[in-house]
Write a structure and sequence with these properties.
Elements lengths: L1 H4 L1 H19 L4 H15 L2 H26 L10 H6 L5 H14 L5 H19 L4 H14 L4 H10 L2 H10 L4
Length: about 180
């Protein structure tokens, strides 16, 4: 395949497919919602809402891909500040909150103290609420970030998630809040 495409085209091909893989990490149902509402807005003739939906989706996935790539490959020199994502955890819009939590999973992977402190000061209780959500796919990103903010090792976070007693874990994480 490399011989057929050449080095440059193969590199672009590989980049596109890796971006698709990264999108899957931060999707959390967004794609299926887009499919549903594209069909709805087309059927009802709401072209302005359709255009808004598509541009919002493109902006979200582009920013999420850049954030994930920047977090994964330091050589790219991409640094995404998490401030806006942290603020979005307190939004009234469910979609803002789920997207922010998904992005923060990547942005807290290194556990930079200033990021974790900012989350603790600004959105700890919002994360705890989200980690209690009944839909597990939507609760997991908040649960992971909450565990990191509380200083829990990754393996222990995964073990607690698998064990299924989220409430006890969340209560423990909330006690890590500075007095």
């Amino acid at each position: 395949m490399i011989h057929h495409l050449g080095d440059e085209r193969y590199g672009i091909w590989a980049l596109v497919f890796s971006l698709v893989d990264y999108y899957a990490l931060v999707d959390f149902g967004f794609r299926s919602a887009v499919v549903k509402y594209v069909a709805h807005f087309r059927a009802t003739g709401e072209m302005n809402r359709l255009e808004t939906l598509i541009s919002t989706g493109l902006a979200y996935f582009s920013l999420a891909a850049i954030a994930v790539l920047g977090a994964r490959d330091k050589d790219l020199g991409i640094r995404i500040e998490p401030t806006w994502f942290i603020q979005m955890l307190n939004s009234l819009a469910w979609s803002d909150r789920t997207r922010a939590a998904a992005a923060l999973v990547a942005l807290t992977e290194e556990r930079r103290p200033y990021v974790l402190d900012q989350i603790r000061e600004t959105a700890l209780h919002s994360l705890a609420e989200m980690a209690r959500w009944k839909t597990l796919d939507h609760a997991l990103p908040a649960f992971l970030v909450l565990g990191r903010v509380a200083g829990v090792p990754e393996v222990a976070i995964q073990t607690e998630w698998t064990r299924g007693d989220r409430q006890a874990f969340i209560e423990g994480a909330l006690k890590s809040e500075p007095k």
